[in-house]
Amino acid sequence: MADNKVTDIDNLHTKNGNFICGVVEGFYGRPWTTEQRKDLFQKLKKWGMDSYLYAPKDDYKHRAYWRELYTVEEAEHLTGLISSAVEHGITFYYALSPGLDITYSSAKEVAALKRKLEQVSRFGCTAFALLFDDIEPEMSEADKEVFQSFAHAQVSVSNEVFQHLGQPRFMLCPTQYCAARATPNVQNSEYLNTLGAKLAPEIDIMWTGPKVISRILTVESIEEITDVLRRPPVIWDNIHANDYDQKRVFLGPYSGRSPDLIPKLRGVLTNPNCEYGANFVAIHTLAQWSRCNVDGKRDPSINDTVSADIKLETETEDGGVGEDVPSTLSPNMYHPRQALRNAINEWLPEFFRPRVVWGPIAKPQQVVAAAVPIPIIPSVNTCMSLTTTTTSCSSATLPLINSNQLQALAEVCSSVTAINESLLQPVSGAVMNSLISETKVVCNDVVPPTGEPMDCNSTPNGSPAHATKSSEDTPMSDSATVSPVPSSVNMQVDSSCSNTMIVESTNYSTIDKCEKALTHEDLALLCDLFYLPFEHGGQGIQLLQEFNWLKSNAHLVTQANKKGKESPTEPEVTEWFERATRLEEISKAVNLLFQHLTFVPNRELLYDLYPYMWDMRGVISLLNSYIKWLANGQFPQMVASFTLGSYTCMRYSPSFPRHKRFSKGWKETFMSGEQEPWVFRGGLTADLQVLANILRMIVVDGVAAHLRLRALWSEGVVVLRKA
C-alpha cells in the first residue's frame, strides 16, 4: 500500500500556484499559548504547510479591544511569534475583527484600524486579514448616510487599509461567509456580488462552504462561489472546530473534501479544536490531503471517490470497524482512514514527550452534568455569537425530574453528582491575553494589562471600558483539576436481591508499569470514539450497534432462563452471549485506553483529552453493566414494549421543528446534513448517555418509565419508531 506519510520537505504549495494551506486560530474560548504556536510552526514546516492566521476570538486585542495598541511586553511576544513563523517558512497573517462596533464612515475609526495594523507591520508582519464574521449585518445611522450598503462599507474600509499598508498579502472574512447565510442565496446575494465586484482583486476572500460547519464541500459549490466572488475562495474549514459543544472533541481525519477541489481553491485553513494538543490528527491529515493532486492531475484509471466519502453515523450496516482502505493507493490519492493511520503513527511519540500543563482549557460554554435528563439542552452556536462573550442557554423548559433517580447514573457517568442550575446560566465574560507569556494565558475580567502602548498616540475613546482585576495561570499538579483515576466499573447481580445493581472496582495500582504504555491501538480507539461532527468512527459505530442489538434481543435470554438449564440452547441465545462478550471487550479496551492515557508523560495532552475520556468511559461501563444484568435474566417485563425490539428510540432536540419530527420525510431531512452539528449536541457520548438515561428509567422507575417515555414521545424529545 502506498504511504502518504508527511515528511520534512520544502513547501509544496509554492510549486502549486501558491496554494495557501495551514491553520487559523479562530475559535472562541481560551487562545493557545506562545509556546504552543511556536510548536505549531515547527509542525507546519515539517508537514509542508505554509500559513498561520492569528484570529483567536477571545484574545481581547483581536476583537473586543481591537483599537488598543500593544504594550512593550506584548509587542515582544508578538514579534517573537512572527519571527518564529518566518524562521520556519510560515506566512503569519495577523487578523483584526473590528465589526462588533466599528463605524465604517468615521475617519477616526479607520485611522485607528490603520494605526493598529501599522504597529504590527513594524513587528515584521507582512500579511493581514480583516474579519467581519459573526456580527449584526446592519449599519449605523452615520454609515447609512455615506454607504449604499453594508457590503460597500466593508469594501471601502478594506480597500483603503489594503492600499495604506502597501498592498500586502491580505484576506477578508465576509459577514455572509457560507451559503446558508447568503441572502437570498449565493448566486443572488447582493452582499457577495458587491464584494466580488468592488473588493480589490488581490484580496483573498474566506468561505466556510454550504454551512458554518460543512459536512461536504463539492466542486460545484466552489465553482458557484468562485463565479460570484470573481476569485477562488480560501476555505476557512470548521470541520474540526469544537467550541460550540462542551462534550465533543474531534480526532478524526480530514474528510468530506475531494482533492479535486485543490486546483479550484486559493487555499484551505483549518480552524480546529480549542485544545491545541488534540489537533495533531486534524492538521496532519489536512497536510496529507493538500499533497494529493498537487499538479492538478490524477490517474483516471483509479477510482478515488472514497476521498470525498463521509458516512453518517447510521449508514454503516455491517458492524465493522470502518471502511476498508484500498489495497493499492496512488501517491497522489487520499483516503481518510489511511491518512488517520499515518497521523496516529506520528502522534503516538508526542504522548511520551514530558510536558507540564499550565491551566485547564476554557471553552466558551458551561459544562453541564454528564447525566443531564433528556431532553438534551440545545446551546447557542458559538460560531454565530454576536457578542464578545459566548454563552449557553436553553430554548426549552425542562420537565421536573426527581434528582434521586439521577444519582446512580450521575455517579458513574460523571464526577458531577448534582445538577446545579447555575451551570446553565451565562457567565460573566473574561477577556484573555496570550501575548505576555510563553506558557500562560492571562485571564482578566475586562481589563488589558497595565503598561504603556508602543505608540505614543492615545487610544481611541470608542474602546470599551476597562477594569483592573486579573489572574494568571499557575502550573497544575496532577491533583489540581483532574479527578483521581476512576475505577473500572463492572456490574453484577446480588443473589439476595436480583433487581439490584452492584458496582465493583478494580485497583489499577496492581497493574505492572510495562502494561501502562499507550499504544497505536489505543489511539485508533480514541479517534474512533471522538471522530467527526457528522460521523462516528468505526469502533464507535460498532459499540452502538452491538448494544442496540443486545438490548433489542434481551427477551431471548429471558425466555431461555424460563425454560431452564436442561433445555437446549437456541442459536439466537448463543449469538446474544457472543455479542455480549464483544461489548465486554470494547468496554475493557476503553478502560485500558483510559488507564494508559493517565500515565502518559505529556501532561498537557492528558489534560486536553481527560475530561472527554472520563465521560465516555463512565457511560460505556454503565451500558456494559446493564447488559451483564440482562444476561442474568433480570428483565423488567412491565416495560417490555420499549426493549423487546418493537421500538427504536431516537434523540431529538426541541429546537428541531415539530412539524418535521414525525412528518413524512423527517428521516431524509435528518440524514441530508441540513442541520448544523450543534443541533444534536454531545456526539457519541450523548448518544450513549441517552441510552443510559432510558435504561435508568427502565430499571429504577419501573412502571413510571412507561409513562415517562410516553410523555417524552408526546413532547417530541424522543421518537419511538416501529422496527
From TrEMBL:
It is an enzyme of class 3 (hydrolase). Residues 452-490 are annotated as: Disordered. GO terms for molecular function: [protein]-3-O-(N-acetyl-D-glucosaminyl)-L-serine/L-threonine O-N-acetyl-alpha-D-glucosaminase activity; beta-N-acetylglucosaminidase activity. It comes from the Eukaryota. Its EC number is 3.2.1.169. Residues 473-490 have a biased composition (Polar residues). It catalyses: 3-O-(N-acetyl-beta-D-glucosaminyl)-L-threonyl-[protein] + H2O = L-threonyl-[protein] + N-acetyl-D-glucosamine; 3-O-(N-acetyl-beta-D-glucosaminyl)-L-seryl-[protein] + H2O = N-acetyl-D-glucosamine + L-seryl-[protein]. SUPFAM superfamilies: (Trans)glycosidases (SSF51445). The keyword Cell membrane does not apply. Keywords: Glycosidase, Hydrolase. The keyword ATP-binding does not apply. Pfam families: NAGidase (PF07555). InterPro entries: GH, Glycosyl_Hydrolase_84, O-GlcNAcase_cat. One of its GO terms (biological process) is glycoprotein metabolic process. Residues 19-294 form the GH84 domain. This is protein O-GlcNAcase. It comes from Timema californicum. The lineage of its organism: Eukaryota, Metazoa, Ecdysozoa, Arthropoda, Hexapoda.
